[in-house]
Amino acid sequence: MKFTLHIWRQENARAKGHFETYHLDNISPDCSFLEMLDILNEQLVNDRISHPVCFDNDCREGICGMCGLYINGRPHGNDDGVTTCQLHMRKFHDGDEIWIEPWRAKPFPVIRDLVVDRTAFDKIIQAGGYISTTTGGVPDANTIPIPKHKADQAMDAAACIGCGACVAACKNASAMLFVGAKVSHLALLPQGKVEAADRVRKMVMKMDELGFGSCTNTYACEAECPKEIKRQNIARLNRQWIGQLFGRDRRD
Amino acid sequence: MILDSKIPEGPLSEKWTNYKASQKLVNPANKRKINIIVVGTGLAGASAAASLGAMGFNVDIFCIQDSPRRAHSIAAQGGINAAKNYQNDGDSVERLFRDTIKGGDYRAREANVYRLAEVSGAIIDQCVAQGVPFARDYGGLLDNRSFGGAQVSRTFYARGQTGQQLLLGAYGALSREIARGSVKLHERHEMMELVVVDGRARGIIARNLVTGDLERYAAHAVVLATGGYGNIYYLSTNAMNSNGSAAWVCHKKGAAFANPCYVQIHPTCIPVHGDYQSKLTLMSESLRNDGRIWVPKKKEDAEAIRRGEKGPNDIPEEDRDYYLERRYPAFGNLVPRDVASRAAKERCDAGYGVGPTGLAVYLDFADAIQRLGRDVVEQKYGNLFQMYQKIVDVDPYENPMMIYPAIHYTMGGLWVDYELQTTIPGLFAAGEANFSDHGANRLGASALMQGLADGYFVLPYTMQNYLADQIYVGKISDKTPEFDQAELAVRERLQTLLNIKSDKSDQSHSVDHFHKALGRIMWEYVGMARNTESLTTAQRLVADLEAEFWKEVFIPGSTDEFNPELEKAYRLADYFELARLIITDAMHREESCGGHFRTEHQTEDGETQRDDENFMYVAAWEYQGHDVTETMTKEPLNYEHIKIAKRNYK
C-alpha cells in the first residue's frame, strides 16, 4: 500500500511546530500503524533526511497506554476500541493521505514531535485515586463478598489505560471520563466506599487546578476511548460530587 | 567469588518465620534518615517503593516511561497464583511450593520458593484491600481458574487484564506515598550506572530522557526491579522499551548474573507474519483452560492449509492430532510452557505446521463454545478474542486461533541470596530482574506472584536487616570521586556511540537493523533448541555483528536531547555483551532442563534429560572485562525437603 503522511514535527516544547510531508510505498496491510512509522523512521535514518519522528510507544498490545496519536482527526485513528498500536493499515485505503498529530490539550504539553507530557494524569491519581492501605494488616480476601455485577462494573471502569484519548477527543480538553472511571472503579467496591467522598472532591479539584476543561456532555470521549469506558462513569462521578457537596458520607 | 545464600536454619516451613523473628529492624525515627533508590515501577518496584515509603523510608523511584503505570507488568494477562485453596481442591502452601519446584525442573532454591508460596495468600488479601476487581462468582466470592503445571485451580484473575489491575493497585499505593512525600517519582529517567563506594551500592547515575541530562542520586541502598532481558531476541512479548541494561551495568560493577541461559518461550503467541514486525503478541495461557491445541494428522492436509486450499474447519475431527492430549494425558493442554512450546516446534518441524509459513498450530475453542455457549466464552476471554481479531483479522469464534511459541520471560537474572541481595552489598534485585524462584522454567501466573511477593512482603523485611547498621553512616554524598567517575564513564560511553560515523551512508545502518540481526541469531541458534554446534555458530555470529555495530551503526542527534535512537543504541550495546554470556552459560550447561533444551540431552521420546549429578546448581557468572570469558561460581542446590523426581506430565 501507498501513503502520503503529514506529520507534526516539533523539536521541543518551546519550538514552533509544523507539518512535514512524507511518502511511503510497499506497506503491508497487516502492518500496524506504529510499524508503518518504524518503516518511515528507518528510511529517515538510512537516508539521513532528518531526525526520526518521535512517538511514545511501549507494549504494542494495547494495554500500557503509552501510545496515542491523533490520526486524521481521531484519537487512535479510525478503528473502534483500539489503541494506535493495534490499529492496522488494512483499515486505510491504498493511496490515502494521513494526518498525524500529537494529543492537543493544554495540560499535555508537547515534548517532541508526537510525544506529549501526561504527568497531569499521575497528579490527579496522586490527589486521591486510590484506597489508603498500607502493606499488610488487611482482612482475608473473601471476608467481604462483592456482588458479581458490582465487581464487573468496577472492572469495566478499571479497564482505563490512562492514554489520554478522552482529553484529546474533547473540545474542552476535559478529563471527566478518566477521573470518572477511577472514581467509579473505587466507589463501586466496598473497600473504596470509606474514602469515596474525599476522593471525588480531591480528584476533581486537582483536575480543575491542572487546567483540564469542563464537561459539556458531548461524549466524544466515550466514542474515542480505546477501552470503551462508558459515560455512565461521568454520571457516577457527578453523583458522587454532589453527594459530598451536600455532606452525604462526610464524617463530621 | 563466595556465594552465601544466607538460608536461615530450621525446617523449611519455619525458615521465614524464624528469619523475621530474629532479623534486625530500623526504628521509625531512623527510617526517616535512610534513603532508598528503587529502579523500575512494575509490580516488584512499585510494591517495594510503596511499602518502604509507607514504613517511613525516603524513597526515590525511577521509570523510563512517562508514568509508573506503564511498566510492562501491565501487560500480564492471565492471572496470579496463590495457595488460598478457596476451591477446596487440594491446594496448600506445600502443593504450590512443590508445583513451582517441579515446574522449574528442580533448578530453584527450596527456601526461596517455599517463602514465595507462604506469602502468596497475603498478596491476594492486599490486592483486594486496594480495590483490585478480581473476578467473582455469583455469591460474591473470588473465582479461580487453572494454569499450566497445576492440577488445582489457584489462579486469581481480572478478566484478561490481571497484570494491569494488580499494577494499578500497586501504582495506587505508590501514588499515595508520592502524595505523602515519602516517595519521589522520577519518570522518563533511565538508570545508566550503579555507583559503588567502598564495596557497597550507594547510588545511581540516571539519564533524564527528555533533556538528556545525567543526574546523580545517592542512597543507602538500591533496589533493581527492571524486569528481564527477553528483548535480546528482538521479537518477544516484551514491551519495546523493556531492556536488560540496568541489570547489566550492575553485573559489570560486580553483581553476579545467574543462569542467563534460562529463557522462557511461551507457547501461545500470535505467529510472526512479516519482517517489519516489531513485537509478538501473547495470547494468555488461560486460553488453554478451554482451548484445545491441534495440527492435522495428515501431512497432505497441513500442506493444503499452508497453500490456502483448505481451512481448519475442513479437517474432520478424526484427522486432527490433539498432540498435547495425546502425549501428556494427565495434564493435556495444561502442560507447562516449555513442554507445550517444544511440542509445537516438534510438530511444525515434522511438517504438520499450519498457516502460510507452516510455523503455527491451532488453538481451538469450538468444543468450549459448544459446551459453555458463546456468551460464557466471551465473558471469560472476550478481550483476548478481540485482540486476536484486531491483529490477525480472523474471527476466533468461527475459526481456531493460530499460535506459535515466542520469547516471553527470562528466569535468569542477577544472583540474589535469601534476602534478595546481590553480591554487591546494598544492591537488591526483585521480580524478573533476579533469578531466584523459577528455576529453569516459570509456571504461568507465577511472575505476578513473585513480583508482588518480593515488593510487598520480602524486601520490606530483608532490607531492614541490611539497613539497621546504615543509620550510623549519615547522609550519602553524591559529590564523591566515585560519582564523578561513574558519571564520566556514562558520558564517554554515550559519546563513543555518537561518534560512530561511517563516511558512506550505504555502509551505515540504524540501531534496529542490528537489533533485528541479533534477534535472528539468538532465536535461530540459542532459542528453543540448542546444541554445541548451534552455540558455537552463535558465538561467532554475535562477535561479528557486534564488531560491525561499533563501526557501522548510525545514531542521529546528540546526547542532550530527547533521542530514542540513542536509547536503543546503548541498550543494544549491552545486549551484545549479555548475548555472549547467555551463549557461554548455555554451552556450559550440558543437560536439558526447563526452558534450556540441549538437543544432545533428550530422552527417546524427546523430553528434557536432566543431569542432576553434575548440574544441580545455580551458575553465577562474574564479569571479567569486555571480550574476556566470565568466571563461574556454583551455588549447589540442596533439596532437603522435596524428593527429586523425573519431571513427568504424562
Briefly note the structural class of the backbone of chain B. alpha+beta
Q: What is the chains' assembly state?
A: heterodimer
Number of strands of chain B: 19
Instruction: Give the amount of beta strand of chain A, in percent.
Output: 5-15%
The CATH class of the largest domain in chain B is identified as Alpha Beta
Overall form of chain B: globular
The total of helices of chain B stands at 18
At CATH level 3, the topology of the largest domain in chain B is: FAD/NAD(P)-binding domain
Count of the domains of chain A: 2
CATH superfamily of the largest domain in chain B: FAD/NAD(P)-binding domain
Biggest sheet descriptor of chain B: 5 strands, parallel
How much is the average pLDDT of chain A? 95
* Succession of helices and strands of chain A: EEHEEEEEHHHHHHHH
Give a description of the structure.
The complex is a heterodimer of chains A (252) and B (650). Chain A is α+β, with helices and mostly antiparallel strands and 252 residues long. Chain A has helices at residues 33-46, 119-126, 148-158, 165-169, 176-187, 190-193, 196-209, 220-224, 232-245; strands at 3-9, 18-24, 70-71, 74-75, 97-101, 110-112, 115-116. In chain A, a hairpin with an 8-residue loop joins strand 1 and strand 2. In chain A, helix 7 (196-209) packs across helix 9 (232-245). By secondary structure, chain B is an alpha+beta fold. Chain B has helices spanning 15-22, 28-31, 43-55, 93-103, 110-130, 162-180, 245-252, 299-306, 323-327, 337-352, 366-372, 374-392, 447-467, 481-499, 511-525, 532-552, 564-588, 612-615; strands at 35-39, 58-62, 80-81, 155-156, 183-186, 189-197, 200-208, 214-218, 221-224, 257-258, 263-269, 292-296, 320-321, 361-364, 401-410, 413-414, 427-429, 617-622, 631-636. Chain B has a five-stranded parallel sheet with strand order 5-2-1-9-17. Chain B has a five-stranded antiparallel sheet with strand order 11-15-14-12-13. A four-stranded antiparallel sheet of chain B has the order 16-10-18-19. In chain B, a hairpin with an 8-residue loop joins strand 18 (617-622) and strand 19. In chain B, helix 3 (43-55) runs parallel beside helix 6 (162-180) and helix 15 (511-525) runs parallel beside helix 17. The two termini of chain B are 41 Å apart. At the A-B interface, helix 1, helix 2 and helix 3 of A face helix 3, helix 5, helix 6, helix 12 and helix 13 of B.
